[in-house]
Write a structure and sequence with these properties.
about 210 residues; two-stranded antiparallel ribbon; elongated; about 25% strand; 4 helices; alpha+beta; 6 strands; single chain
Length: about 210
Amino acid sequence: MIKILQFLNDFRRDESGNASIELLIAVPIMLWALLSTMVYFDAYHDEAISTRAGLTIADMLSRETQNITPAYLTNLQRLLQGLTETDNDPGLRVTVFECFKVDPDDPDEDCRYDRIWSRNRGLAPNHNNTRLRALSDRLPVMAHNDKAILVETQTDYNAEYTVSISPFIVPDLTGVTFNSFTVISPRFETSVCWERGPGDILCDADDI
């Protein structure tokens, strides 16, 4: 019995092999931290690209002096896909609107935002006046009859690795959607018009 107790006591105090056990515990944590860093860096990188792509599309539209056609809008979506390097078709919605004031001389009067036209590729539905006015807190202060272009984009991001151990600690980035919301004024024209067909041009606000 004494020999057994002595053996157990020696086994308890024996520290040989501790380094292997610590390595076995530490390596998975280190790998998880490394993959997490890579995934989150890639996600922020893609989000920045998505935002810049939306700004690029908005800047292009603001410089247009010709009417926007359905084919032009489709090509804008293709350009957005190329800029964001996404495998899926990105969403794009372009809305041209104006500010209306009952008393244009009253600087404190809020704008009533009226839609002129709104079209989308993969980001439905188009804005009507009700939907547009619901975004009033995100739209800029404008002068009476001033017109602006709202460009919204949507791109999907799927992480290369699933690194989440708990959605409350590190959320999973699979299926994340990046959205951009850009408002810009026309640079060379008072408005950018939508050409629905030969001779069918939409340049004035409607009450849809």
